[in-house]
Design brief:
The structure is a single chain. By secondary structure, the protein is α/β, with parallel strands linked by helices. It has eleven helices and eight strands. The chain has an eight-stranded mixed sheet, with helices on both faces. Helix 3 links the parallel strand 2 and strand 3. The longest helix is centred in the N-terminal third of the chain and has 26 residues. Keywords: Oxidoreductase, Signal. This is Oxidoreductase.
Length: 236
């Protein structure tokens, strides 16, 4: 009899917790997120954002690619051109090769002024050539920001493989930690909140200059740890 009562109490507690989580999720205000790209990075992060309740718009030069990315994610996902996505998003996420950033900036920077711009890109010498060397010399955060004057650029989601992010999101505690860097406090807070909703533990490293800590070839790159482990790797 005692075991039955205990089981009933456990079920009631579990239902209360589920109800509490659901209530908080419904109370959160969704943000429209435009994604510049429709490949692996776009699909991985876009899927996690949709699961968190945010409407997303994928974009590509060839609209069919964006439509394919959106089709599997239900009514919260849509497709458009890069201009459409930049206009649609309260927040915009860059999901293109690093070598494309200068041209993307020339085309879309006027549409992104005053918006939070999430940059999960990485610069690699074998693909991005001299731009990768420039990112290493100047710091990738500062260089990325230079292509998008007026946008509030935040570096995040770049330091760990998309396959790992997709598999480890919302894992049992301790959560997977991801580093974040940015200059504008409100934009940084926005991205921290998104990361938490997606199932990660965001660790703020500081301003955009500190994004060097977790760019390719630096100590925080490909660190798959909880908060304490990531902070040790970053020297924080």
């Amino acid at each position: 009899m005692m075991m039955n009562r205990r089981a009933v109490l456990q079920k009631i507690t579990a239902l209360a917790l589920i109800s509490s989580v659901t209530t908080r999720a419904l109370a959160a205000t969704p943000s429209k997120i435009g994604i510049i790209g429709a490949g692996t990075v776009a699909q991985t992060l876009g899927s996690l954002l949709v699961k968190a309740g945010h409407p997303v718009m994928f974009s590509a030069r060839h609209i069919e690619e964006a439509q394919s990315a959106a089709s599997a994610l239900g009514s919260l996902a849509s497709a458009g051109t890069p201009q459409n996505a930049a206009t649609f998003g309260d927040i915009v996420l860059l999901a293109v090769p690093y070598k494309a950033l200068p041209s993307v900036g020339q085309e879309l920077a006027p549409l992104l002024r005053g918006k939070t711009l999430i940059d999960p890109t990485n610069a690699y010498w074998f693909r991005d050539g001299s731009l990768a060397a420039k990112a290493d010399a100047q710091g990738i955060g500062r260089l990325s920001q230079s292509f998008f004057p007026g946008a509030y650029l935040v570096r995040a989601f770049n330091s760990i493989d998309m396959s790992v992010l997709g598999a480890e999101a919302a894992r049992p505690a301790p959560l997977l930690a991801i580093p974040i860097a940015g200059d504008q406090p409100e934009a940084v807070h926005t991205v921290q909140s998104l990361a938490q909703e997606m199932g990660f533990d965001p660790v703020l490293t500081g301003n955009l200059a500190t994004a060097t800590l977790f760019q390719s070839g630096h100590p925080g790159f490909e660190v798959k740890e909880d908060r304490a482990g990531l902070k040790r790797a970053l020297g924080l």
